[in-house]
Structures are given as C-alpha cells and as structure tokens.
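Listing S7. Sequence submitted for prediction.
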Amino acid sequence: MLAAAGSLPRDDDRWGYEVKFDGIRALGYVEQNLRLYSRNGNEITPAWPEFAGIAPGTPPFVLDGEIVAITADGRTSFEALQPRMHQRNAAMIRSLAGSVPATYLIFDLLHIGDRSLVGLSYEQRRAILEQLGLEGRCWRVPPRLRGRGADVLAESKRLGLEGVVCKRLDSPYLAGRRSPWWTKVKNVNEQEVVIVGWKPGNGRRSGRIGSLLMAVSDTAGQLTYVGNVGTGFSAAALEELQASLARIRTEKPTVAADVRDVVWVAPELVGEVSFTEWTGDGRLRHPSWRGLRPDKSPREVVREPTAGGR
C-alpha cells in the first residue's frame, strides 16, 4: 500500500501518525528463513544479511516496513544507504554491513499463519503487530505518534525529520494501490525524477557527467522536462551513473527541451532530488541529487506537492 502526498487531515481522532522514514520499502516474508522484496517485486534478501535473525516465524508471517540507515544524530539518511542499495557482491555486502549498518523499521503486518490481515483496519493490524515482540539489534517496530497532527508534524520538523505519514485508523491494507487513507506530509521538498539525459561537465568533470536532465510525467502521462541537476553527487555516484547511463544511451531526444550538447538516454532510471521550489515555468529550483531509486518505476514519477501544501 502506497501513501498519497497531501496535507494533514482535519479530523485527528480518525487518524494515526508515524514518522516518514527516509529509506527503501521492503516486504518481509518470515518463514524458516527471511525473504525480502522491494516494492517493485525484486528479491533483495542477499543485500541485507543482518536481518536474517527475524526468522524463523512460528507461525509464518508477512511484514511491511522500511530499510533505513540511521545517522549518529538519530535521523534516517537516504544518502547513507546508497552504497548498499545496489550492491550484490557478497564480500562487499559483508564489509558494508559493518560500515553502513541498516535497520528494518516494521510498521505493518499483512499475514500470519493461514490468515490474511489485509482486510482488517490499520488499528487492528498494528495491535497484532505490536504483540509479536519484534525487537532485535537492527529491526524493530517504531512507535506510533500521539497527539494532534499539527503538533506531531511541528515536532518532526523541530527534530529535523522528513515528515509524517497519516494513516486512517479504519483503513484496510490496499496492496499495490496509492490511497489518501495513507497520506504523507513532508517538511522538506523532495521529488522523484526520471533521468532522460546528461550534459558533459567542465574541469574535473570534463567528458563526464556535468548535470543530469530530469523529467516527470504530466497529467496526460507524458514525460516533461523539469530542469537539470548538477550538485549533490559523490565521486562514486557519478562513476556508477556514468556506467548505468552508457548502457541506455539513445540518439533520439527523450523529451522536448531547449538544451544543447545533450547525451540522451532511455527513460529507465529513477532518482530523487531535494529542491527549494517549483518555478513558474515548471522547473525545479536549486535541485540537489539525493540518489537513485531502483525501487521505483519511471511510470510512477509525477509531480508531488511541495512541503506543507497541495
């Protein structure tokens, strides 16, 4: 089940609140062993060996949660998680598990034994989940946030958190659907984008990526150019992007854009940027790269509301 971007609900008594974590979504199938799947259905179990101790499940059960990297100040960092998201080399995974520890934050329970729970209300599912006692070195059930939505959001902003997710207490789990019964409200402006090309850089980046061309789908489902991003990249990220984009290079322009000296690519890779605001002509102002989103499909990428509004 996916959250729709929006504003705080007005009827607080009908809603529960959770921290919006800055990581990657993962379903956990807990039987004799644990199997993890990303939101686009890819098995990602080998990348996260530290979660194996959640199993066995007696009886088996299915979890929903977010894999995050927690920084020293207690916040979740999507950037810190990047080195681990794409790694499949076993030796490197073991090394990164020590240097970039991850935590599985579990917020829903979908199935237990031979019983599906998706038709139960969010409040009922959370109550059963909390009875399982899922507390380990690197996995846990984060607390629900109490109080008025406005107060919860204000406190999340004071603590430097990304935002909150508002969940209707009586909502069933709508698998594979984005529903306003789960609403995400952010404190910062972030936008998923489809990479449609790149411009060569200058100086140390001469002949390599200087900036990426970004696009999102409009209301008709057509990709629309929304500007370039040229900051926020680590050297490792640029190297990885260079290799990935070389494989999907195309001669035909991917979107309509008045930009010269572009190396066009097929619209297959999704990334995420932070930015200050949308300009009047539909461009992202001062975007900064946050990382690739291999768990997202290009067809899902649409313009999202800015922080605190629709």
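Caption to Listing S7: primary sequence and predicted structure tokens for the chain studied. The CA atoms of residues 136 and 217 lie 41 Å apart. The helical segments are 78-85, 90-99, 122-131, 149-158, 235-246.
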